[in-house]
Structures are given as C-alpha cells and as structure tokens.
Specification:
The complex is a heterodimer of chains A (178) and B (372).
Chain A: H1 18-22, H2 24-36, E1 62-64, H3 79-83, E2 89-95, E3 108-116, H4 125-129, E4 135-137, E5 152-153, H5 155-158, H6 167-174
Chain B: E1 6-11, E2 14-19, H1 24-31, E3 57-62, E4 75-76, E5 86-89, H2 94-109, H3 125-133, E6 156-158, H4 168-176, E7 182-185, E8 192-195, H5 208-212, E9 218-220, E10 233-238, E11 247-253, E12 256-262, H6 283-288, E13 296-300, H7 327-330, H8 342-345
Parallel strand pairs in B: 1-5
Antiparallel strand pairs in B: 1-2, 3-4, 3-5, 6-9, 7-8, 10-11, 10-13, 11-12
The chains are: A alpha+beta (178), B alpha+beta (372).
Chain lengths: 178, 372
Amino acid sequence: MQPLTNKAQAVNRAPMSFWERLYLINIIKGMFITFSHMFKKQPTIRYPEQKREFSHVFRGLHVLNRDEAGRERCTACGLCAVACPAEAITMEAAERQDGEENLYREEKYAAKYEINMLRCIFCGLCEEACPKDAIYLSETFAPANYTRKGFIYGKEDLLIPNPTTEAAAFAAAKGVEA
Amino acid sequence: MSEQTLFKVTIDNITVEVPAGTTILQAARKIGGEVAPPAMCFYSKLKGSGGKCRTCLVEVAKGSEKDPRPMPKLVASCRTTVMDGMEVKNITSEKVVEARAGVVEFLLLNHPLDCPICDQAGECHLQDLSFEHGKSGTRYEFQRRTFKKHDLGKNIQLHMTRCILCYRCVFTADQLTNKREHGILDRGDHAEIATHIEKSLENEFIGNVIDVCPVGALTDKTFRFKNRVWFLKPMDAHRDCPTCSGRVTLWNRGDEVFRVTARKDEWGEIEDTPDGQPGWICNTCRFDKKETSDWVIEGPREINRHSVIAQGHYSGKIGTTKPNETFTAVNDGRTPQLLMDIHDESEVNQPSIHLSQTKGPSHGETFNNNKA
C-alpha cells in the first residue's frame, strides 16, 4: 500500500547487542523514573476526608428557591419542564387561596414539583429557562442509593429552608461565606 | 351573485386579485405567510371589529391606478379597502416595522409580565406579536394600572390587568347572544371590561369570548391552572350538539379532557364549519363535556411546528395510540422482578386524582396537601 504520510519508520530488525540482551541498562532507566516519582507532588485526594473544590460552574442537585420573606418563588409555569431535554421535571399547579400569601409569592404555585434524578442529566437548562429565579443547580450531587425509589425528588427535598421560620437551617444550608 | 369586479392589489411585491370591497388585511391573508399584517383587535368573523389596536398598520405606496399618489399616513389595513392597482408595503417598509414596534410598546405599557402564571401563554397573540415585532425592553417606569377584581361567574375568569381593550368580546356578546351583559365601563386609563353590576355571564354562547380574546384577559375557569397548553395534546373531535356545531378541539392529557375550545385557523380565528358558518361552540360543549366518552375523536390536530404547542408532539397518528407492553412477550411470559411503578413513588399525575373532573382551579387540598 502506498504510505499516506512519510512518518512511517521501518522496524529495526538488527540482532541485539550483548548489553541490550542483558536488559540491565533499561531496567535501571525504568527504575530511575519510578524512583523519581517519590519526590513529585501527589495528585491523589484522600476522599472522603479530603474533598476537591467544586468549579464555579458546577451543576449539581437542584434547589427550589424562596424569596426574602420565605415565600416559594415557583409558579409552576412549566418552562423548566418544557426546556428539560431528559423530561425529568413534572409538576402540578394550584391556585393560592386567601391566607396562603405568606407561603407562595404569586397567585399560582406548584402544589407538586418533582425531579426524577435518574433521568436528569444536570444540563442546567431548567435554571436558564426559569423566569422567576426559582430553580438553581447547587454544588452538591445526589447521594448514591440502592433502590431507584430514592431518586424521585419531591418539593420537600428540593425547597431550601425558609429563612424566616427556619433561620438556623437556612444559615447551615447557605454555608460559610468564602 | 353577479359578476364581481376584481381589483389587482400588490402587497410586498406580490400581486393578488380580490373582489372589490375587500380590506387590505384580508387580501394579504389571501397571500398568507409573513405578508399578512398581525391583528390584535380585528376578527374577520365579527362584524365591526378592527381599527383599534393599530398593529396592522401598512404603508400604501400607490393609492390606485387612477390616483397613484401614496397615502400620507400609515393606514390600518383591517379597515381600509383595496383599490385597483393599489401597492401596499407591509414588512418591506421600514416605516411600518418601526411603527409596529411602537404600537407593541404601547400595548405592553400596561400589560403585566404575567406569562408564567397566565393560562393563555403559549397561544397568546400578544406574546407572538411582541416576539416578532416588538422591542426587547420597555421604557415605561411607572406602576401599571390595577383593577378591583371582578367575578364573571363560574366559567369565565377575567383578568382585567391583561386586557388590551380590543372590544372583540363585546362584539361577540353582541352578535352571538340575545342580550349583551358585559361591556367596557369608564374611559381612558380606567376603561375596564365589567358587568353592571357584578353579574355573571350565563348566556349559552358567551364562552366564545374566551376564544376570541387575543390575550389572557378572559380565560376558561374550568381549565384554570390545570396545565400548560404545551403539555396538552390537541385532538379534533365532534359531538352531536343540539345548540351548536359541536366541532371542537379537545386538549387532552393522557385520556383526560382538560379543556375544550373551538377549532382555530392559522390566524387564530374560529374555523368555519363545512356549511360555511363560523364554528362557534356553546357553553355546554365547552365547559360541561369533559369526558372522552362525550366526544367522537377525529384525530390529532395539526399544530404549526413553530408553535410551542407542537413541542413533544409527533405529526400524524404517532403518539395517539398506546404502545403494548412487550416485556412479558419477549421474556417467555415472565414478569420483571424489579419493576418500579412510577406512581408508587411519584406524587405528580396520580391516577386517583382527576383534574378534568374538578370544577375550577385546584387548590392545595386537591392534592391532599395539608399545608394551609
């Protein structure tokens, strides 16, 4: 066959010399490379005692946001669900009634909101589609589980703690300011 | 009818022959596509509508063959009839594009940014209009107008803040019902759709105001907040109705009928029935027949593929028939041992809750949510 490039080299088939047949020099060369690694910086992270920092653009588990007064921001507009390429998000909307104004920000709210984490591909399109600043991808990932049942995340799993009624939990979830 | 005089009219360099007395807008719709100016208040099935919203403004570059002078101002194409040899510029005219952007800005001055809540979102003419012809920002810095809430009965929900005062619903009530019970009260900034005083709209054909409303000001209370239109499956269906044509579009979720509307054509207007009459539907069909067994289903409705409603829908019969469960067949009759039924775990779309059966919007307790 005609060579496509001129990079091909013929294999040297000449018989090995005495020193080459001993392999000693090559073994010493190899051992030297191995030995030199003892003085290099270790790339290994001793998880879970040590943890690598997340990137600023890391997309992890979703949270459903509340406003400053602790009201749910989500109005079940369905834009996250329609943007979701994996069809992981489902929801059911309800009308806010009198006396629920401190719970929900708008006239309509998501009575049920579910993300199927088995389907989710963490692309972040829901976050981008949300017109109400209601859904964000956080810097945590879904913990492993033995059954698939644990991966259906409902509203109680996703909502952030209420800053007015659960101030301690809210502060803990917020973490330390970097 | 005797010989009709045909007028030659050129719109955006496309010539079409229309009978005398046709409006520019109707002539442009005959050509179709982008040539047709948008219309918010004009409704070809309602006599007297048009001339209010100014979104259909066009430039007449040549008045007619006999009088070739251009018209001095932009004209409302829904109210201006064609002349022989008229030359009209719609999207080819910079003046029109600029004026239309201004009109959209005016229409949106008092229109709330309600789209995430509004049931009309996805099939709203104002959304389409502002997307296609509007500007991305607003220069308005003041409070938008607000109104005292008005109850129009158990079937029709009024959101006056969203109204653009197109008068279509007033014409509908005038021309379809014996007695109009709602209208525009007050004037200027205070003008509002209302009944005098606090009556509910009960006429058998009054539900059609929901279909003619170009925005979400009048919406179906029996469908309120139940689902977004783009998650529903539009199906053509008919029923033997003693009062109306009975030709409707069902908006299904699974096998449940969430909403019933009249069939709409590409201009968002009510389709004609085969005998040439507009296919208005009665309140019984619209609000009370929410069972699949009430209807004879003809097939999935064709939706323009640029519409958000078409997302996730396949054309033709695909998606309208249920696939068979093949697992046991390919596994020698064995059933899977580790099968998760999503309904065991998921709280959404529970088979025990029938949203189509509930009148009006659902509340927390509809989903057994004892939070309130």
